[in-house]
Every structure is written in structure tokens, then in C-alpha cells.
Amino acid sequence: MGLTRALAVAATLLPLACGGADGSADVADTTHVAEVGLPTVHAGELTVSRIVAPAPVADGPMALYLEVANGGAAADTLLGATVAGASASLHETTDGSMRPVARLPIPAGATVALRPGGLHGMIEGLAAAPAPGDTLRATLRFARAGEVAIAAPVVAYAELERRLGAGAHAGH
Amino acid sequence: MSALRRAVGAVALAVAAACMPASGDAPPPATGFAGVTLVTPLEKPAGTFTTMHGEPYDLRAETRGSVTLLFFGYTHCPDVCPVHMANLAAVLRQAEPEVRSRVKVVFVTTDPARDTPERLRTWLGAFDPTFVGLVGPDSLVREAQVTVNVAPAFKQPMPGTDPDSAYAVGHAAQVIAFSPTDDRAHVLYPFGTRQQDWAADLPKLVAHEWD
After folding, report:
1. CA gap B15, A120 in Å, rounded
2. Chain B interface includes A20 (CB < 8 A)
């Protein structure tokens, strides 16, 4: 499964940004804090974990990191994310260059990670920049699982590697 | 899990290899650095840039005798640039004064259209106000990247967004560490370098005598 994840991530090289801003639902009741101190949300066969967003610096863009594990027998696809009052898109950094990702396949049995140096959500246009300690609410849109509301703890960039623990960076 | 480790290890090696000068040389000697040790050291880029305070900055003259950590990036970068800068700032805050005083972090913008001196001051200052933000003519910045063997940065329009304001910039992801003694770079720090790696390596970068 770990290998599948690595390959799935490596195989995801898709065009076009997604996004929009049509409000976000309340966070699911199943939200809890995992052992790494970051929330986990269950939605059907999907588990979204290691949700975290570094506080933007000098009103730069905001990144969103998370992992999606598909425990079901059917593949799903992450179609995009929405954040109220902002635009959200999905990107992948490869060798220092960034490409938009329109659809992110989540194969059955696989875990796909958005983490520093690899895939990330990018949020732009927030009226007020969140600070460490704040919570960023977003809604993920999946082809099968539908909308999944998440609440990302906002942390300083310097805290990211500690909060994400082992595997804090893509490819390492 | 071991399969994943192997796969990831292979990718990491490929990335590390891509960072290194193309050559068929033997693997680099074990030096005890957490960073990637270069077989062929890199020369420090020459030329006079302009600091984020508007002053001329002769890179070689200003950084001679210091461990110089050179990075090419841009402030609208969501991921690689702020992680490197934040990790360096956090480690330098904890470093012994005799180490801290011997290290200069130099950030050369690859996005001069948006990275005004004022914006560089705000952005870099949020990490550490002693970090040196440099702008230069495109030709000088390009030449500097060629000197250290990284692919020159390029503008990447993002579909569906304003190409004049919402683009990304492709750029090298590694920090290049120049020695205070011979003014050349012997060690690279790819993206993914952790704070503990910096904390272990900075004193060695200050003290190590290269052959």
C-alpha cells in the first residue's frame, strides 16, 4: 500500500486548476485529533488525515496539506476544494516547478498525500490571513464521496515538519 | 514498507543526483554532512546585486568568510521557499552565537516583477530580518543560477488565472552552502532537509576545512 501511494502520487500529473468559493459545511462529527496532533475526518470509505495549513507569510498564498486514504474497493477522485471567500486549487511541485492538478485519483486501497514539496492545496484571496492557532475551514469535493468538510489547524511554517512527523516532506 | 523506502530512496537519489554536477565521478566521500556532498565544488556566483534595502551587494565580497546559504526563490511560493526559510530561521535562532555570526542566508528572487524590495523586506523579515534579500538584472540572476549548476527559474502561467499576477515560478529547490574558507560550495541541501539536519551541519559548515 505504501508503494501504491508513492506510485499514485508520482503518476498524478494533470492539467488545470480547480476551485471556487461556494461556502463550506460544518466539520463532520467524526473529526478527532490523531496521534500526530492533526485532525482526521472519516467520510464513507475515505479517511482524510494529517490536515494542516501553514500560516501565510506576508499575505502570500496559503498551502493546505492532508492525506486521503481510500479504504474502499472503488477508486475515488479528488475534484477540488473550496474555501469560503477565497479561491482554492490543487498543485504539484516537481523538481521546483509547480503544476496545477485538476483531478487527483485516489485509487482503491491507496493513500495519497498532499505534503510539502509534492502535492498541495493552494488558497489565495483570503480577506484576512490566518495566523498560527487559527483554523482554516475547507470543503473537499470527491467524485464518489461527495463533499467532505475539514478544519485545518493553522501552524507556522517552522512547525510543519514537527507536526507532520515522519514523512513530513514528499519524497523523503 | 521496505518497498516504499526503496522506491522513495531511489527517487531521493535521483533528485540528489539531479542536483549535482553531471559527471561520472565516484560517489562523494563520506564527510558526515547531512546535506548532499558534491564531488565537484561550485564557484560562488560573481556580480553586484541590489539588496532589499536598495544598496549594492557584491555577493563574493559581502559574503567572503561566512558560511553562505544561497537560495533562489520567490515570495509568492506556497511551499518550498517558506519551508526552507522558516527551518533555517528556527535553527539559527537556536544556534550558538559563534555559529550564528558566521552564517549568512542569501535569498535571490527569481520573480523581480512581484518581489519588490519592500515585499522582500516584509516576507524575509517575517522569518529573520538578517536574511539578505537580493534582486538583480535578469541576466545576472540567470548567470548566478548557471554558475551553481541549477536550472534557471522560469515563469509558469497557471491556467484560468491572470498571467500577469497569478503565475508560479519554477525554480531550484535546494539551498547551496558555500564554505567560509575556500568560498566554494561543497554541500547542497535539497528540499526536505529537516531542522535537525541544519542544526547538525551548520557548525560543521563553519569549521570544516575542505581539501
Report:
1. 19
2. no
Q: Is B28 helix (H, G, I), strand (E, B) or coil?
A: coil
Q: What is the pTM (predicted TM-score) of this model?
A: 0.82
Q: Which of A12, A39, A19 lies closest to A27, judged by CA?
A: A39
CB B89 within 8 A of CB B131: yes
Cβ of A126 under 8 Å from any chain B Cβ? no
B-chain residue closest to A87, CA distance: B161
Indicate if ipTM > 0.85.
no
Q: B78 and A89: CB-CB below 8 Å? A: no
Select from B8, B161, B173 the Cβ nearest to the Cβ of A96: B173
Q: How close is the nearest chain B Cα to the Cα of A65, in Å?
A: 10
B171 neighbors B110 (Cβ within 8 angstroms): yes
Contact B72, B133 (CB under 8 A): no
CA atoms within 13 Å, Cβ hemisphere of B13: 8
Query: In chain A, which residues have their Cβ closer than 8 Å to the Cβ of B82?
Result: 54, 57, 60, 157
Q: Counting every residue, how long is chain A?
A: 172
Please state, as a whole number, how many other Cβ atoms lie within 10 Å of the Cβ of residue A38. 20
Residue A89 contacts residue A18 (beta carbons within 8 Å): yes
Partner residue opposite B119 with nearest CB, options A58, A120, A161? A58
Tell whether the model's pLDDT for residue B128 goes beyond 70.
yes
pLDDT per residue as tens digits for the range B158-193? 776 777 777 888 888 899 999 999 999 999 999 999
Provide the pairing of β-strand A76-82 with B184-189: unpaired
Distance from CA of A29 to the nearest CA of B (A): 30
